[in-house]
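Workshop exercise sheet. Pairs work together: one partner reads the sequence aloud, the other fills in the structure field after running the prediction. Swap roles for the next sheet.
Pair: D.N. / O.F.
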Amino acid sequence: MKIGFFLQSYSSGGVDTFLVNLVNHIKFNSKIIVFYNDSHPGIKNIKRKFIKKVKFVRYRIFSFENVNFFKNLNVLNLIIKITLFIVFPLVFFYQHKKLFNLISNEKLDKFMVINGGYPGGDLCRIASIVWAKINSKVKSWHNFHNIAVEKDRFFLTNFYRNKIDLMLKKSINGFITVSKSCSKSLKKRKYLKDAKILTIYNGFKTTKFKKKNINYLCCSFIK
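Structure field:
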């Protein structure tokens, strides 16, 4: 069995630790592939912590998260943002095609996106949508690890990303998150009020509690 995990991260943290713990606890025979963005700062640390052989696939695909000025809202940046988001649909199709080729080339049996906050990186959500096109019989679970943002500050961003939410909900089995607060926050998104959400706590160092959560996620790949 070939299992793919997809990351789009710009800082090291809990998502990296979660991935390492999950992969290291997968007991059944499998080949693991990790897709990561070329600017991921913690990838060397992740590689050192894996206790089993893992294939790493680096990608470089344009994402709006790469553009630093999106964090600002002055007049000049607002004009640039409006211009860019007018072509948002074209960017979406570009990202969709790139991710389809990237993921389908590995001929995976199972796939999971491990997202930080929500919506987080656009490539994370599009990757889950793409997987449904590649293997519609084995839908993925979309994993996120922080409080979901109810609305984006920029109105065009909010409009388009809400549409992606709707596409994502139709493409996956559901969402997995780490707390009831995260779960409740996701339901504040316009198109995710009735989304299927599983809450699986990260756990403590208590062995029983931690293994229960890890085993649940591992078993989800077999079903």
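Discussion prompt: Residues 104 and 180 are 34 Å apart (CA to CA). What would you look at next?
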